[in-house]
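Lecture 7 notes: from sequence to structure.

We start with a single chain of 324 residues. Read the sequence below before looking at the structure.
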Amino acid sequence: MYWQRFITQDGMSLLYFLLPVFGGYTLTSLYLLKNPHILHKKKRTAFYCMHISHRGGCGERIESTMEAFENAVKHGTEMLEMDCHLTRDEYVVVSHDENLLRQTGQDVNISSLDLQDLPLYKERMEVLFYEGRYSTGADRKIALLEDVFRKFPELPVSIEIKENNKRLMQKVSDLVRSYNREGITVWASVDNTIMTECRRTNGSMPYSFSMTRGMLLLLLFYTGLLPFVPLGESLLQFYLPRIMNRTYFPGGILANKLAVSLLEKVTMRRSLFQHLAARGIQVHLFVCNEEEDIKAAMEVGATGVMTDYPSLLSTYFCKTRSSD
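Now the structure, written as tokens:
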């Protein structure tokens, strides 16, 4: 009886101590989540983009071609998103895939070919994030990154690096420096190892969250630690989960749809996105190819939307601005 009474009293004492500590921590975390300027200086990037064209706007022109980039700019895009690879003779080219089977019909790798030997894109290319849709265009040539920089010297560009190729990273960095674009060219990669190497190659360029860092961001958010932790990233680029059900699971399996629904509830947190925006970290949700998706992205707190259809996004923004 004595020990039971001692344990009970000791447990109650501990509870009386922990409750106010936990309560104080929770209230402080919530307050700082809404007022991050108290602990963190707001990032001031050289760009702020609401209209981002995925692969140059690959729903309206063949992906990653100069024609696609020019069309996107004509429709008011504020950032071009692209992927880069290195040819055998060390030219940096713009292509989503290293292997060109999907894009050209030829089962060859970019790294195995010289620039002059790269095949043309297909005349008709499927839009991966819009089932049953295809793009066409007069330009079927794989673009040089340098041509993009030369043509659009002041336009922000997000470059995703998919392979841990130090030579590729160095070549990209050299071009960025050569065209004085360090403030408006973004390192992007889902792979944290690759992102670390990109930053080591050129630490002056802004960079986005890798997958690992994105998961850590969510962990910090749900444990209440986020307001206390410094963040080096300037952008969060993430799927709008609802598009996965149409893209990856069309007519799909119930378990997959439930998983996507759970992912949406966990990741699409307006308070998280507002906190990041208040710290100067832009939130770009993709790939929004329907008006309802653009609306959903903006309503959840995205600061920018990435699309395959730049004209659709421009029309949406024009309509919303005129109605305000």
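Residues 129 and 309 are 11 Å apart (CA to CA). Keep this in mind for problem set 3.
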